[in-house]
Amino acid sequence: MMFSKGEYMERLQQVKIEMEQRGLDALFISDPANMNYLTGYDGWSFYVPQMVVVFLEEEEPYWFGRAQDVNGARATSWLSPCHLLSYGDEYVHSKVKHPMDVLSIWVNQHKKKIKRAGVEMEAYYFSPRALKCLESNCDWITFVDAHLLVNEVRMIKSDREIMYMKKAGKIAELAMQAGCDAVKEGARVCDVAAAISHAQLSGTADFGGDYPAIVPLLPAGVLTYAPHITWTDEKIKSGDPVIIELAGCYGRYHAPLARTITAGKPGKVFKNLSTAVIEGIETVLDQVKPGLKCEEVEQMWQDTIARHGYCKDSRIGYSIGVNYPPDWGEHTASLRPGDQTILKPNMTFHLIPGIWLEELGVEISESFVVTTNGCELLSDFPRYSFL
Amino acid sequence: MMFSKGEYMERLQQVKIEMEQRGLDALFISDPANMNYLTGYDGWSFYVPQMVVVFLEEEEPYWFGRAQDVNGARATSWLSPCHLLSYGDEYVHSKVKHPMDVLSIWVNQHKKKIKRAGVEMEAYYFSPRALKCLESNCDWITFVDAHLLVNEVRMIKSDREIMYMKKAGKIAELAMQAGCDAVKEGARVCDVAAAISHAQLSGTADFGGDYPAIVPLLPAGVLTYAPHITWTDEKIKSGDPVIIELAGCYGRYHAPLARTITAGKPGKVFKNLSTAVIEGIETVLDQVKPGLKCEEVEQMWQDTIARHGYCKDSRIGYSIGVNYPPDWGEHTASLRPGDQTILKPNMTFHLIPGIWLEELGVEISESFVVTTNGCELLSDFPRYSFL
User: Fold this and answer.
1) CATH level 3 topology of B159-377
2) In chain A, what is the straight-line distance between the N-terminal and C-terminal CA atoms, in Å?
């Protein structure tokens, strides 16, 4: 187990305080990161319906998933065997049956007192059909939207979580180095991806890497204008910019890191854009401290790049931590106008202020933890490769 | 572009025939594989809401996504620029706004004639909140469940799709070889994962690899009883079984492949179990041909392993093709009791009949394409490493 049972119980306690405030006697959790956060459960099983259910009046939550995955829950979670509920394989990708029918029948038999339950209405792995199934089978329960309830509890990390994120940051450094070493005129972008992925999974001699929630993003050349392109097997040309966005991952905890480099001598537009982005990052990192609002952090960035004649209309960062594909972001605080979240010690962010012009884009990022009087980076990697 | 515009138009035509039969004048598609199948769009952007919308009366569908990803849609899809609709970054992971508001307003302004629309109620990336948003903003439209409508069109592959899957099969061979070479007494499982991932992404000298929809699954030792465990950084012990389930991926097309091997001499239970699984696979592959039902294929397997004293209560395979995380399965036909789907030429399946006992599990798989009179494997890799 990644954490002591005490730490899991503390997390649950915080979730229950929030449930009580919202008048929820049950919480149906589909987000695999939230499932992991409360129970330790870890497996690539989120492609079939599964849940963790927390009842306000019970100490221990229930895991519900495919029968085939009960052994995985036994191996990775702290839950007692009688709290592992399952459905048979005939429910998997069936056109006529839904796994939530099985959960509903169990709720019907054992939890008839539940009146008001939260569900994660915007989670990736909670479908409209799953909701309808719960609502129609448990029609005496009022289901309300509790999306992000657990995510918000996740925002402030424990010291052990920070330790894992620093390990992830170390892996990110190694992966970025592998990527930068592989970017050469004539190299195929897919081989850069392969070198990065190898470093991500192998980790260090002391600890191995876990799979990040997002594969390496490697737009090269003109494709740098499209930030979520993965890679091609085209060869890198001299002077081509290559964006490398990746994360180190340890025990599902992430430390993302992005750099933009060139094979050979960079052009003038690239240098100017990089200089502006780096100055913006440095301004932010110099001033970040507890008590600031997320929108104030973004404003520092805007003011800096405005002096270089640029503006950027997308958010420049977001809260990070434990996660699963397709995203390492926590979906809570964002560094952007209007976000009034106040920074507190042990919050962790990915500061990723890319600028994309029509002909090319530059992304340079840092992951940081808010400390008592400033911030600390999770990785140590030069931002200035082109100088 | 991976396919000619003509091939995309043919796919659309088939989708429209099905829409007409179901009385749908619009289809809102959230599944990234379906979006790719109809438009070519490819990017790691499915962590934010996005859609392809097909209107029965219009030749060309619309792509709808984040403004930041429009360039990616320009680069990878065949759609005209005026068919790329977008929303601003203030809608991304916002607590008060939803991207589907923007799409709804556009539908309201331009598509007021639409009466009945299909949505994918069980797609990974279509949330209850997204549905509610469409339903409340476009309240004159009846939204009905059209989950799998496009997936079913995808089942029979074109010759070009088969060609891509054979390339994926070649990558799977190389990745499996890298994995088998790395499994040694004292090696860390994460380093086996790293070697596999490197081979998957690097591909061959002639063509690079794409990221598979699932990371390598590498349960080792006693963890082989839990099929969806990814990996640890523990060292492999002598005699430990290691399951290697992976896929080669080319242009988002998959060829999955699983083997179970041991570091050093395998034990008796392992050998017996492997022998039964292999015999079951061979029986199936010898007899698969067009005209058989999926459930009949499964029955052949059950009959064979029953002679060894085993039975398995989960499905032994499923339809495969183009896909994105978290799953490479198409969610249409499954090789299991009750599935009446009739095999036709150019259907493609992953036959993965694992058996998991309490102390260990064995998974051995093949991906095959149904031919005019039998089947052809996508990869060529020995099943008998322990003999």
Assistant:
1) Creatine Amidinohydrolase (3.90.230)
2) 45
